[in-house]
Amino acid sequence: MSGLPNCPKCKSEYTYEDGDLLICPECSYEWTVGAEAEKDQEIVVKDANGNVLHDGDSVSVIKDLKVKGSSSALKMGTKVKNIRLVEGDHNIDCYIDGFGAMKLKSEFVKKI
Description:
Elements: E1 16-18, E2 21-23, E3 30-31, H1 33-40, E4 45-46, E5 52-53, E6 59-61, E7 65-66, E8 73-74, E9 79-80, E10 84-85, E11 92-96, E12 100-104, E13 109-111
Pfam families: YjdM, Zn_Ribbon_YjdM
Protein name: Protein PhnA
InterPro entries: YjdM, YjdM_C, YjdM_N
């Protein structure tokens, strides 16, 4: 065969190259060879104590945090349930009762 990988979306074996891209003629999905390997790598996020966090974990805030655009602060000990990990500087996406949707830095929370 051609030695090209199968389509990651529909698993078709009829992929072909077009410059740097690999293309599936059956589902029209386009990808690069290195992109799939990068997607498989999981984000590793650690809390203030060095514990690894996962999606769906519950955490507690370890210090008072000023909230931009709000007159009140997020108090130490506030519990945050069902976090979601994202890439970037503020790597925790969550919903906090009384504040709404918010992004937090993992260095200011500890796993419960």
